[in-house]
Structures are given as C-alpha cells and as structure tokens.
Design brief:
Layout lengths: L6 H13 L6 H13 L3 H13 L6 H13 L3 H10 L1
Helix pairs in contact: 1-2, 2-3, 2-4, 3-4, 4-5
C-alpha cells in the first residue's frame, strides 16, 4: 500500500484487522504510518503515532522518523521539533 500511495487502503486494512481483534503489531502500524507520510497526510500520521500508546505499543525510531518527516512535509515545524525532542 505504501509504494502504491494507497494510504487510504492501508488505513482501511488496519481498521479491519483491529475490528476483527487481530493483533496489529508495531511493524504493521509503522507501515501504515509510512503510507500516510508518503501521501503527505501528516494529521493521519500523527493520529497513528498517538495510537501506539492506546494499544500498549512503544513507537520505535522509525515511527518517530516517519512522523517527523510527515510534519516537515506539511510545514508543521513546531510539531516536527516537538517530536524530535520526544524521540
């Protein structure tokens, strides 16, 4: 989904997996973040980053990097700097 810029399909798939009570690990969540970042949807990317804690997952450096890049693409400099300090 990420390579085809189909971030919307990636989100639907993630939601479908969660609704079926399937385990969605950090890697899957980070992959969907990557699809959103490539589509320049920084809000979606940040929503996914915040969902890690709601799912008792710890975001890794890759998730933070994706979120920072998405914020930079969206010219959300304050958010990008905040994430840089948190990561």
């Amino acid at each position: 989904c990420a390579r085809a810029w189909r971030w919307d399909y990636a989100l639907v798939l993630l939601t479908h997996m969660e609704s079926r009570a399937l385990a969605v690990d950090r890697i899957a969540r980070t992959a969907v973040m990557g699809a959103c970042e490539k589509a320049s949807t920084w809000g979606c990317t940040l929503d996914l980053l915040s969902s890690f804690s709601r799912r008792s997952l710890q975001p890794d450096w890759m998730a933070y990097n994706i979120a920072i890049v998405a914020c930079a693409k969206g010219q959300q400099w304050a958010l990008a700097l905040h994430l840089l300090g948190v990561a």
